Amino acid sequence: MILEKTLALIVRATDWSETSRIATLWTRDFGKVRVLAKGGRRLKSNFETALDLLSVCSIVFIRKSSGGLDLLTEARMAEQFPRLRENLPALYAGYYVAELLSEWTQDYDPHPNLFDAALGALRDFGNAGPRLGVRLATFELTAIHELGYRPILEACADCGSPVEDDARLAFGSAIGGVLCPACQPRHHERVSLGRDTLRLMRELGRSPDAWRETPVDGTRDLRRLLGQYVTYLMGRPPRLLPYLATLS
Question: Domains, the chain, ranges and CATH?
Answer without folding.
Answer: 2-79 (2.40.50.140), 83-244 (1.20.1440.120)
